[in-house]
C-alpha cells in the first residue's frame, strides 16, 4: 500500500495522474483495505502518514480486536507502544503463540481496561504476573492461558479470583498436573483443556497425575455448555483428565450440549466415566460429540444418547460399523441436516454394514455412503482418512462420485486407495517402479516410463475421465485437501524415537500418481494441501499444474511420494515452488532428500514463506545454501530440519542461523538435528507448541476439532 503525505494529497497537479490515489476512496472502502493491515503497522506506522489515516487507523472497527498471534515481527517495545496508544480501545486481544515475547510483556496488557476476550496461550506467564494482570481486567469474560511447572494458585489475589469468577470461557493448556485456574472460574460455560504433560521430567523422573489430589478446590461445572479435552500421548495426561471428569460424573450439567474428548491410543473406560455417560444419556441432548474409541467400541452408548441439532461428530479410530452409524447416529436422515463437520478418520468399518466378519480391505457398501451424503448434505468438513475405503464396480457407486454431491465442502481428507478408478486398480497391473519394495534398502536402478510434462497432454490422457478428476471439478470451493496413504506413518511420531521403516502402500493405491495430482489443480481456491504415500508418482508433473493454478495455496505438505530410494519429483517440485507466491508453510518428508543449492534457490521464489520443515532419513543438506536462503527469504521465522547429517554439522548450522538472524527476527525458531539421534525427543519438547502442532508433527487436521471452537 502507498499512502502519500497529506501535502501531496492536497496538492493540485496540472496534469492528470494515470494512477489511483487511495485517499480519494470513501472511508468505508479505506477501512476495508486497512482491515488487512496488521494492527501494529496501522497504529505505529500507517496512521503517521497523514491526518486522514490518523483518524481512520483509530476507528473502532480496527482497534476493537487486535490479533498478534502470527505477527512474527512484533516485539516487546511494539507491544508496549501499542497498548499505550490504543489499550483502552481494545476489547479482544489475541497473543496466542507469541513465545518469543518476554514474560514482562504481559505487564502492558493491564492498560487494556475494557478487555472482554484475552488469549495468552503459548505466552510465558507466571502465577504472580497473571494475578496482577487479571486484577485490573474486571470486564474479562474469555481467557486462554498455559499452566506451566511452578504454577501456584495460592498466589492469585482476591481481585484476580473475582475476575476469574466472571469468566465464562476458559482455554487452559496444561504442562504440569494441576487444576490451574479452573476452580476459580465459577461461571464457566465453555471449558477447553489441552493436556501436554510429559511422563518424565527433564531430569528423567517419572511424573504422577496424583499431584493434584491435595488441592482443596474443585471445578465448578454447573453452568457448563461445552467441555473439550485434547490429550497428548502419555499416561499422566489420562490420569489428570480423569480427575477433571470425576466432578462431571457426580453431577452432569443440565445445559451441556457439547462433550468432546480427543485421546490417542488406548484410554480405558472406568466406573466413573461410565456413570458420566449414563447420566448424559438420561439428562442432556448433545450438539457435538467425540469420545475415546474404547468408550464407544462394543457399547450401546450411541443408541441411548440423544442429539438436538448436531453440528460436529468425531468417531476417529472407532470400530463403529456403517450399519450402526446409520441406525444410531444418522437416524434415517431426520436430524443430520445441521451437521457441518464429521471425522471418521481411522474408522475402518464405517462404510460397511457390519464389522464382525469383514476385512479392512474389503469393498465398501455404497448405499451406506449414499445415506450419509443424503442425510448430511450440508457437510463442510469431512475426514475419511486412515482407512481402506475401496469402491466396488457399478455405475455411480464410486466413493468419489457420491462425495461429489456434497457441494458445501470446504475441507476433505481421503485415503489414497479411495480415489483410484475401480477398473484401473483391478485390471491394470502395477507399473514397473512399484515392483520395487517400498523400503530403505539398496537403491535399484530401473527404467521409468516416460510421462508427459506438458500439462495439456496430461489432462487429455486419462484424468479427465477419472472419478477423482470429476470430484475435484465438482468441489470448486474446497480450501483444504488431504490425500494420505492408509498405511502411512510419519518418521517423526510424538514422544517416541523416529520410525525407521514404513509399511507398504495399499495395493489399490498402486496406480495413484501424477495424473491424480494434476486433477487437484482444478481447486482454484485451495489453501492447504497434504499428499502422503502416493506410490505411482513418476515425475511429479502434477505439482507444477497445482503451482500454476492454485494461486491461493498457503500450506503444502508432501510425504513419501513415488519410490522411497529416490526423490523422483525434485525437478517438478522446484518448478512448482517458483509459482507459489502465497505459500507460508512447507513441510517435506522424504527419504534421501537433498536440500541443496538448486532446491533453496527455487524455494527463494516463495516470498511469503514463513515456516519450513524437512524430515528425511539419510537426507543431506548444504549449509551455505541454507544460509543464503535464510538471507534471501526475510519472512522465514521457523526452520526445522531433521536429516541424516552428523550432530556436529547440524549444531554448527543451527548456531550460524541463530547468530546471523535472531536479532532482526525475534520469533526465529531453528531446530536442525539428526533424525535418528537418540535425543530427538528431548529436542522436540523444546519446540514451541504452535509450530509443533501446526507443521512439525504430521497428522490429519481436517475435522480434527469442531469449527470455530475458539476464536
From TrEMBL:
Entry-linked PANTHER family: F-BOX AND LEUCINE-RICH REPEAT PROTEIN 18, F-BOX/TPR REPEAT PROTEIN POF3
Taxonomy of the source species: Eukaryota, Metazoa, Chordata, Craniata, Vertebrata
InterPro entries found in the cross-reference section: F-box-like_dom_sf, F-box_dom, FBXL18_F-box, FBXL18_LRR, LRR_dom_sf
GO biological process: SCF-dependent proteasomal ubiquitin-dependent protein catabolic process
Pfam family, one: LRR_FBXL18
UniProt-recorded name of the protein: FXL18 protein
Xref: SUPFAM superfamilies: F-box domain (SSF81383), RNI-like (SSF52047)
One GO cellular component term noted in the UniProt record for this chain: SCF ubiquitin ligase complex
Domain F-box: residue ranges: 19-66
Amino acid at each position: 500500500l502507498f499512502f502519500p503525505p497529506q501535502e501531496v494529497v492536497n496538492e493540485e497537479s496540472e496534469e492528470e495522474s494515470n494512477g489511483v490515489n487511495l485517499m480519494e476512496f470513501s472511508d468505508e472502502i479505506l477501512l476495508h483495505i486497512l482491515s488487512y493491515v496488521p494492527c501494529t503497522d496501522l497504529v505505529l506506522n500507517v496512521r503517521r502518514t497523514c491526518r486522514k489515516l490518523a483518524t481512520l487507523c483509530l476507528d473502532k472497527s480496527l482497534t476493537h480486536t487486535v490479533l498478534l498471534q502470527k505477527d512474527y515481527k512484533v516485539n516487546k517495545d511494539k507491544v508496549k507502544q501499542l497498548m499505550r496508544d490504543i489499550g483502552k480501545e481494545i476489547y479482544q486481544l489475541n497473543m496466542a503463540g507469541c513465545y518469543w515475547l518476554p514474560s514482562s510483556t504481559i505487564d502492558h496488557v493491564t492498560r487494556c481496561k475494557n478487555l472482554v476476550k484475552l488469549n495468552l496461550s503459548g505466552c510465558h506467564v507466571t502465577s504472580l504476573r497473571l494475578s496482577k494482570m487479571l486484577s485490573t481486567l474486571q470486564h474479562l469474560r474469555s481467557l486462554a492461558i498455559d499452566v506451566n511447572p511452578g504454577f501456584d494458585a495460592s498466589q492469585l489475589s482476591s481481585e484476580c479470583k473475582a475476575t476469574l469468577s466472571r469468566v465464562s470461557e476458559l482455554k487452559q493448556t496444561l504442562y504440569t498436573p494441576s487444576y490451574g485456574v479452573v476452580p476459580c472460574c465459577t461461571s464457566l460455560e465453555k471449558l477447553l483443556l489441552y493436556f501436554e504433560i510429559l511422563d518424565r521430567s527433564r531430569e528423567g523422573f517419572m511424573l504422577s497425575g496424583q499431584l493434584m489430589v491435595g488441592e482443596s478446590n474443585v471445578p465448578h461445572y454447573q453452568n457448563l455448555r461445552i467441555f473439550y479435552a485434547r490429550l497428548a500421548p502419555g499416561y499422566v495426561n489420562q490420569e489428570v483428565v480423569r480427575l477433571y471428569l470425576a466432578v462431571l460424573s457426580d453431577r452432569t450439567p443440565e445445559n451441556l450440549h457439547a462433550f468432546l474428548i480427543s485421546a490417542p491410543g488406548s484410554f480405558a473406560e472406568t466406573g466413573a466415566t461410565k456413570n458420566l455417560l449414563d447420566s448424559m444419556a438420561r439428562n442432556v441432548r448433545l450438539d457435538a460429540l467425540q469420545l475415546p474409541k474404547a468408550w464407544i467400541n462394543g457399547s450401546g452408548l450411541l443408541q441411548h444418547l440423544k442429539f438436538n441439532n448436531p453440528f460436529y461428530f468425531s468417531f476417529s479410530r472407532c470400530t463403529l460399523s456403517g450399519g450402526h452409524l446409520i441406525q444410531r447416529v444418522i437416524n434415517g436422515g431426520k436430524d443430520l441436516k445441521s451437521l457441518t463437520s464429521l471425522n471418521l478418520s481411522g474408522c475402518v468399518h464405517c462404510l460397511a454394514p457390519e464389522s464382525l466378519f469383514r476385512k479392512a480391505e474389503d469393498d465398501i457398501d455404497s448405499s451406506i455412503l449414499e445415506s450419509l451424503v443424503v442425510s448430511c448434505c450440508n457437510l463442510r468438513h469431512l475426514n475419511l482418512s486412515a482407512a481402506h475405503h475401496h469402491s466396488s464396480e457399478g455405475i455411480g457407486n464410486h466413493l468419489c462420485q457420491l462425495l461429489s454431491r456434497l457441494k458445501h465442502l470446504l475441507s476433505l481428507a481421503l485415503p489414497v486407495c479411495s480415489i483410484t478408478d475401480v477398473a484401473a486398480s483391478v485390471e491394470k497391473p502395477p507399473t514397473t517402479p512399484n515392483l520395487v519394495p517400498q523400503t530403505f534398502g539398496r537403491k535399484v536402478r530401473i527404467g521409468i516410463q516416460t510421462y508427459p510434462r506438458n500439462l495439456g497432454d496430461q489432462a487429455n490422457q486419462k484424468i479427465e475421465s477419472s472419478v477423482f478428476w470429476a470430484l475435484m471439478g465438482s468441489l470448486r470451493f474446497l480450501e483444504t485437501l488431504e490425500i494420505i496413504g492408509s498405511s502411512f506413518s510419519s518418521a517423526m511420531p510424538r514422544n517416541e524415537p523416529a520410525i525407521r521403516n514404513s509399511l507398504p502402500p495399499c495395493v489399490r493405491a498402486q496406480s495413484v500418481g501424477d495424473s491424480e495430482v494434476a486433477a487437484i489443480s482444478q481447486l482454484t481456491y485451495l489453501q492447504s494441501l497434504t499428499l502422503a504415500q502416493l506410490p505411482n508418482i513418476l515425475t511429479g508433473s502434477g505439482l507444477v499444474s497445482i503451482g500454476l493454478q492454485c494461486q491461493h495455496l498457503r500450506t503444502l505438505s508432501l510425504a513419501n511420494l513415488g519410490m522411497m530410494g529416490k526423490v523422483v519429483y525434485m525437478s517438478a517440485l522446484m518448478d512448482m515452488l517458483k509459482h507459489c507466491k502465497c505459500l507460508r508453510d512447507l513441510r517435506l518428508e522424504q527419504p534421501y532428500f537433498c536440500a541443496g543449492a538448486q532446491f533453496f534457490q527455487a524455494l527463494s521464489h516463495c516470498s511469503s514463506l514463513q515456516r519450513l520443515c524437512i524430515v528425511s532419513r539419510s537426507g543431506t543438506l548444504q549449509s551455505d545454501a541454507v544460509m543464503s536462503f535464510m538471507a534471501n527469504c526475510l519472512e522465514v521465522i521457523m526452520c526445522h530440519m531433521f536429516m541424516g547429517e552428523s550432530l556436529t554439522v547440524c549444531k554448527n548450522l543451527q548456531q550460524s542461523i541463530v547468530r546471523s538472524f535472531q536479532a532482526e527476527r525475534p520469533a526465529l525458531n531453528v531446530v536442525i538435528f539428526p533424525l535418528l539421534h537418540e535425543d530427538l525427543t528431548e529436542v522436540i519438547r523444546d519446540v514451541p507448541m504452535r509450530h509443533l502442532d501446526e507443521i512439525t508433527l504430521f497428522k490429519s487436521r481436517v475435522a480434527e476439532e469442531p469449527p470455530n471452537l475458539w476464536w
